[in-house]
Each structure stands twice: as C-alpha cells, then as structure tokens.
Amino acid sequence: MSHVNANFFEGVEKLLEVWFESSRPTSESLRCIPIEEFERLTALANCQIVSRTSCEAMDAYVLSESSMFVSDRRFVLKTCGSTSLLRTIEPLLQIAGEYCNLDQVANVFYSHKNFLRPELQPEMHRHFEREVAQLDSIFENGAGYCLGRLNHDRWYLYTLNPANGAIPAYDQTMEILMSDLDANTMSCFARDVSCSASEARKLSGLDRLFQSDLIIDDKLFEPCGYSMNGIQRKSDAYVTVHITPEFSHSYVSFETNIHQTVCFEQLKNVVNCFKPKRFIFTAFVNKGSEEQRRIEYDLANTTVGGYRMLDCQYLRLPNHTLVYSYFVKSSASG
C-alpha cells in the first residue's frame, strides 16, 4: 500500500459492486474477460493487481490497494488510499458487454465511510455529492444515502432502485469498519514484527476468525499494512480484510458475504480481535428474510461487550434491507 504522503495513508475504502444481466440470447461469465483488461481497469483507479486465486465460481485478486472479486455476473472492486475508483465504471460496462454479452446492469452498490482526509482524495471523490453526480451520469434511477451523524462517523451509499434483477434469492453481505485500534494487535502487521503475511495473521489472532477450509491469499506490505482475501472452494462467497496499522490513523475493514448463521456472533469475534475504539457495522440482507429478523433482534436485545451503540438505522431497498449501526467503546463519548 503506497502512502499518499510521508505520514498518512487513507485506510477507508471505496467499495463498488455491480450485478450484470444480458438482453441477448447467450452470454458468458465475467471471468472470461482477459486479465489484461482487468490490469488496465485497476490502473485507471491508480492501483495494481498483486496476486490472484480462483475457485469453481470466482476469481479473487489482491490489489496494491485492497481487493477485486469476479464471478459470473457480479463484479466487486474495493480500493483504499487516494484511488480513483469511479473512473473504472464506464470501461467496466464496456468490456462486460464486449467480452460477455452482459449489456445490462441489474444493480449497483457504491459505498464508503467518511474519509479521514477527504482533501487528499481525487477531486471526484472529495464530496459524496460529486460522486453521486458522476454515478447519475452513468446510471438511471440511482439514489444516494447518508447514514449516521453528519458531524461524526457516517457511511455513504449509492444504489439503483430496480423492480427486479439478477441478484440471487439469497444475498447477504456484512461490513465492519473499525477505527483507532489496539496498538499491540496493529503492531503485528508491520515488517519489523512479522516476517510474512501468515505470521501476522497468526500473531494477531486473525486466523481464528475464519473457517479452516477457506482458500486464503494475503499480503504483508512494506513497511506495514495487510490485505487478505479468503474464498470458499465451491461458491462465490468471500471474506476480505484490509489493515492500515499506523498508530495515528489505524483502520481495519472486515467484509464477507459468507452465509452467517449467527451474524452478530461474527461481529463480536471480529471486534474482540481488533479492539477498536469505534466501529460501523453494516449488513445487506434479503428483505423479510430470517437473517433480517435475527439481526434486528440482536441489535435490539444483545450487546457487544465493552461497547455502546450510538446509532441504528434501517433502509428498506427494493430487494434488500440495509442495517446500519455505530458503536463506540463504553468509556468513549459520541
């Protein structure tokens, strides 16, 4: 992860998820797109492909700034630092149509937490209103949302409002966005403490958060910083973790769409590992699903040890319910 200046790196990621469909009689998987096209795409965002792993249903890429996931109809790009993610969208739509006959977009999800140093972002990313204007110039029927406190940590979302689409009947994604983390845990993700990514994963306890059958691809950067992709062997489910360990602006993101029988327990385990001073929890779940009811019940009736929830909001989308909540350490103020 290259630094935007000598003393600061923006750990907060921009996250893009695009679901495709086709109006034509036949279509191909997005995985048919040559890797050279993905290399050009990521270069537009000012990052590079570092490594790739594959399973039966998906290709997962560790990038110099975060991750990319490509399955048959879904494309996910997550970039941190001072990247220009929105520059990739129109070229992505072009190559999806050219190589795969995927000429229609079923839905789009673009999101990020508020940046710690927005003035260091490319011009189009410094204000969410500018991002929405850029997205509106590409897509129809888009909607932008801000969840959380305008004078504190918050989370932005842009999505479409389709009547229906190619998103599968089961779809669940959760993110945990953590700030001001435990210094001892963060020290594991520096080259002067850990010699390799696998050593950092074990020293920090991160490896205990994952299923043993995951295919893991991770990278420990110089002089510090860590990225990990974990994928299941027979599905397009994944987990991805990105760590900016510098003391003055430490940040960790944990994201997964792996089916969680008890989503709230996963949240507790992640928070117990990293011990942030504050964090945002988001979950997209199918509207009216058992997962939605369970998360809503847990947020209302279950505590995360050592933390208090300051905000909890629900957004009812055409195919999903979005759950947003914000927690701080019990000794901290909002």
TrEMBL record:
- Annotated binding of substrate, by residue: 9, 65, 221, 246
Enzyme active site: 66, 80, 227, 242
Q: What is this protein called?
A: S-adenosylmethionine decarboxylase proenzyme
Query: Is S-adenosyl-L-methionine given among the entry's keywords?
Result: yes
Catalytic activity from the UniProt record: S-adenosyl-L-methionine + H(+) = S-adenosyl 3-(methylsulfanyl)propylamine + CO2
Q: EC number(s) for this protein?
A: 4.1.1.50
Q: Name one GO biological process term.
A: spermidine biosynthetic process
Keywords (A to Z) from UniProt:
Autocatalytic cleavage, Decarboxylase, Lyase, Polyamine biosynthesis, Pyruvate, S-adenosyl-L-methionine, Schiff base, Spermidine biosynthesis, Zymogen
